Amino acid sequence: MHTSPSSSATSSGFPLFLFFAIMMVAANLRAPFTGVAPLLTDLQTSLSINASTAGLMITLPLIVFMVVSPLIPRLSRRYGMERMLLAALVLIGIGIAARSAGGLFWLFSGTVIIGAGIAAGNVLLPGVVKSRFPNHIALLTSAYVLAMGIMAALWSALVIPIADASWGDWQIALLAMLVMPVISGILWLTQLKGTRKPEPGSVKKPGRSIFRSLLTWQVCGFFACNSFLYYSVVSWLPAVVGEAGFSDAQAGSIHGVFQFAGALPGLVIVPAMARLSDQRGLSATMTAVNLAGFAGIMVLPSLAYLWAALLGFGIGANFILALSFLGLRARNGDQAASLSSAAQTLGYCIAATGPLLLGAIYDALGEWQLALWVCVIFSIAQALLGTRVGRNVLLPADTAAG
């Protein structure tokens, strides 16, 4: 029987080193590709590409998420979560190095490899949290989203100064991100001590398809709407505020404000979830916050720093809820990983259209208003789905991904 190195830690105390290692893994699951957004204008100029093609830098990883996510639960059952997370960090590092080599081929090839690594980490972390910290799901989810957001905000703020430095350019700015998976991988190696691959006879056969539950589709829809909003905004916010008159450096800072604000809702979500009987009202409230942000950016873009903070906070809060639902609606770690795989496969299928669609709308019309209205529609849809997935219900005990 496969035994994880900290399987007893959850019953004997709070394993701080494991907590820190998970935070470091999480820090790699957003910044390596969202940190590209402030450089999209430079990439367009340097490589002579239009906005739609530049948008592929954000869309490609989402497509990879959609393709790779269904494979992860089966690989995890075969090789173990710890080994798969280490493999994810290795892929992210290889992808960062390849992407920085220069030219469109390496730019997109490296992005695909990064996407595969991030997909594995995205699917596995909710399962790790459910298995290792079953009584602290909201806390751990909020904490690792905070780690993701802080690192993403840091790189959003740093890439332009690095690229503009006398010794730098966009390639060096992207290569600098390699330090994250290297350090994180070294730390995560400690989680492999004492582990072994599951024996063939110990791997449980999956039950009936998880997609036979309506709750699965509702969770997938909620996750999809949130992902569409996040990746659309993270891709084009610098361009939107740049058109409103902000400089490239200011646009990068506004982008950083959005990223950092998206990490802060954990300070609200954890105590709120402890007091509420379900999460329906919390989701609706947070959706109202990001709707206010979209309204502000359309009507009064000069206050972009404020609207970016509202957008980051509202979308970030619902992202924490979306990830929390993967554990809260599951009965065990394996089911959480299966639900995570399902939500991210279908969710990113929808999300992948966002950056490309919004870029195409801008190319066609030459302005961002219609693209922002599309985001408003997805926000409303998410609020409606939140009234269903926010209920305190669980998946049937015999469901799992195949």
UniProtKB/TrEMBL annotation:
Pfam families: MFS_1. GO terms for molecular function: transmembrane transporter activity. The chain crosses the membrane at residues 12-31, 51-72, 84-101, 107-125, 137-158, 170-189, 210-233, 253-274, 281-300, 306-328, 340-362, 368-385. InterPro entries: MFS, MFS_Cyanate_Porter, MFS_trans_sf. Signal peptide: none annotated. The keyword Cell membrane does not apply. Keywords: Membrane, Transmembrane, Transmembrane helix. It comes from the Bacteria. PANTHER family: 2-NITROIMIDAZOLE TRANSPORTER, PTHR23523. This is CynX/NimT family MFS transporter.
